[in-house]
Amino acid sequence: MTLAGFIAYSGALALAAAIPGPGITALVARALGSGFRSSLYMALGLIVGDLIYLTAVVLGLALVAQTFGMVFLVVKWLGVAYLGYLAWTFWTSGITPETIEGRKSGGGFLSAFMAGLTVTLGNPKTMIFYLAITPTIVDLRTVTVAEYGTLAVLTVLVLLVVLVPYLALAAKARWFLKTPRALKALNRTAATFMAGAAAAIAARQ
Question: Above pLDDT 90, what percent of the chain?
């Protein structure tokens, strides 16, 4: 991979991670309910989940990308439909006071970490990124061990840069983000970004 390829991957991952979805929803809700430390543990679980998907893509999808192009076309349009659904969901409901209350859990490192891991592994938004978008940026047929290691490090760094401000802001501004007006603004912004992402993926050749 070239430097431009690594930059393109990092940029695409940052954009995908920054667009609120189930992972961000769970993370922000936990930060609002339980504070910074618990949500940081959860963020680490989210990151490990991404690394699992990245590893599966590099190890197992190179042949699929080379042989079954139709699979990725189907995944692409399923991804567009899902992001459209998320946009509608966030516009009409999104993060609610009830969601925040549901995330109030002290717990320790393991419980918060596993919560993040399971959210990521079951998150269609994450699947869409690694199955439909990554193969258009990274040539999976030629990735070396060293390049995989670089991608893994970039994944961790990019996700930390994106996720930590989310949870820090939520933890510091808990009193503000719990107000209906602030939650509505957050949800509407998320819906707009997701609708834009769906349109961008649909337009991509």
Answer: 12
